[in-house]
Amino acid sequence: MQVHKYFVVHGHFYQPIRISPSLGEIDLEPSAYPYENWNKRILRECYLPNAYAHIKEDELVIDIVNNYDHISFNIGYTLLSWFEKHEPYILDILKKSSKNALALAFNHTILPLDPRFDKEIQVYWGIKTHEYYFGVKPKGMWLPECAVNYETLEVFKAFGIEYVILAPHQVSNKTSKNYGYIKLKNGNIKVFIYDGIVSAKLSFEDLLTDVKRLVDVFKQSGDIIPIVATDGETFGHHKKFGEMGLAYLSKLIPLKALNDLVEELKDFDYEFKLVENTSWSCPHGIERWRTHCGCNSGAHPDWNQYWRGPLREALEFLRQKVRENLENIAKKFKIDLKQLLFEYVDVILGVKDTEEFLKEKGIDDEEYKLAFAKLLNAYKCVQFSFSSDAWFFDDVSGVEVKHALDMAKYAIYLLKDYEDIEIPFINILQNAKGNTKERPTAKDVYIKDAKVYTLEDVASYLAIMNHYGYIKDEGYFVKFYYKISTSGNYIYVFIKDKETLEQNSFEFNIKDLDVSNMFGAFKKDITEFLIYNTIKENIKHYEELIKQIISNISHIEVLSPFIEQQKAFIEQIAKNVLLYMLKQNYDIEDIVSFYIELVNFGVNLKSVYITKEASKYLYRKAKELPNNEDEFLKILGFVKLYNKDEKDYNLMIGIWGTQNEVWAKKDLIKNKSILDALHIAY
């Protein structure tokens, strides 16, 4: 049996781009309930838990481990940009572990299927993304789906990437020495080969719940350096509490990051022979992303995937047209298009705004500024439309295809003033035949589901939000600058898209504005704002109303439909009042008094929204420790009361985030009852 000095776990962390490109925000995703969208759900199930992985003994937390410090990992633009905007604290944690991070090709396209021009853009943008977020040049880069050919590796090498990771079947001469190099036309690139058997067992079996058995499986590897490579979401999302298993593993065997090994190992002298056009998730090579190869989820064995070819054909047609139009205007200014696109990543990353970028290129004419801005943005959307997810699953009606066609539809919209290609594009999509009556072709998905929100649409949303006091008269909202004025029943909105430089002014009659027609995520925000404003203005009246109703009917012993209707009415109001009290950091004694009175009357105050808000309330108060220990104990008492006898995890106030906060300051806490209540060892 091989004696191993080091072991490696590599996590490929990735989520597809989910934003509406014309708005710059993710819509509500009901399938992610109780979270607003899948990014938020997987953040809570995976990305955050891996930063605070609990090690327990006898149900007590005895250690909290940052798994990112111990594994090798890659993460790219589609997640990092969302973290930066919505969850910056997790980005700060990842930056502290940046020494272990590899780059990722920009938005996870299947690189061997990309033209050389676009390969270079994907790789360059991926490198610049890594440098922007982590502050260092990447040593390695993850191949999306491990899809590889010689040209892709040559592009990696040309841009300074030192090494890649491959599956054992992707080289023809794998040996126990699982690191070496691949010879290219422009030099050699280092390569690590992961253990396919151990990786599959960790990913698809229950080894993360039996870590000692996982260690045994790891040690049975015949490789000099056993390397596991898997989706990072395995640790917590695909495998519940998988991050805890990974934390235990880091205590039992010496884990090493590939970035360290590529520096320490001096004998990358074995030449591997690449098997071209292969990947880690399709035994047919890279066919899963262009043909009906037989690969699918397995959920619909009678379905076909012949739609994959025409979908790619349509998007390639779009890519060609956008590039042609960009080349035409670039020539007029004697601008090298590839170099322009390389540098455009600064706009994508927010290092420069569009106007500043174009001014530096000598583009001052308003007409051409608009053309460049729209076409460069269209090119970015085309790149996003080729993200691998669109071809991975079973049918053309899948949400992944919808996301790709959202991007394509917006690119076509931006291109329209220079060349209108929508009809020929749709004609190609019509050949992408799926498996459902509701969406028989990709054309149906494009027409019925893909959506472009115009400046007028966005201006109407801004008018509604301003009318109800949600936004000011002037400012920035998502990717738009706006200025609003009102006269009588009319609202006037000037709006400018900071990315495309489109601008216009619109007039709306207040009577015609309808919240129900808003983009889902915006509608949720404004609705919550209106509800809580109403509660804020009337909370005393609500409390008195609830008490009056209870007083009037509490003495009636015989149940009747009338009484049950009254309870339902009280419940609806009371849940919103309790949510408001938690959001506004009411004194815990007032919260408990309100809660007990209603529960004793038989009102059900269980709600996923209340549990989430109560968890935040608890966490906020934990940040004040050790200065508020008496108050904090009372809050923990409320948590215990609320959670009592509850079997549904979603209806329990979570203490996990609070445990992480208290763990860091446990030695400062005098009243150890707090640690006992949080199941923290001391």
CATH architecture of the largest domain: Alpha-Beta Barrel
- Residues in helix, %: 40-55%
- CA-based gyration radius: 28 Å
Oligomer class: single chain
Count of individual helical segments: 25
Q: Which sequence of strands runs across the widest sheet?
A: 8-7-6-1-12
> Whole-Å distance between the termini?
41 Å
Poorly predicted runs: none
| Main sheet attributes: strand count, strand direction, barrel closure | 5 strands, parallel
Strand % is: 5-15%
The CATH topology annotation of the largest domain reads as 7-stranded beta/alpha barrel
What average pLDDT do the residues reach? 95
- In total, how many beta strands? 16
Class by SSE composition? alpha/beta
Key features?
7-stranded beta/alpha barrel, alpha/beta, 682 residues, 4-stranded antiparallel β-sheet
Question: How would you sum up this structure, described in words?
Answer:
The protein has four domains: 8-22 and 37-281, 7-stranded beta/alpha barrel, CATH 3.20.110.20; 308-448; 455-516, no CATH class; 521-677, Serine Threonine Protein Phosphatase 5, Tetratricopeptide repeat (Alpha Horseshoe). Helices cover 47% and strands 11% of the residues. The chain has 25 helices and 16 strands. The strands form five sheets. A five-stranded parallel beta sheet has the order 8-7-6-1-12. It has a four-stranded antiparallel beta sheet with strand order 13-14-15-16, covered by helices on one side. The chain is globular. The model has no long low-confidence stretch (mean pLDDT 95).
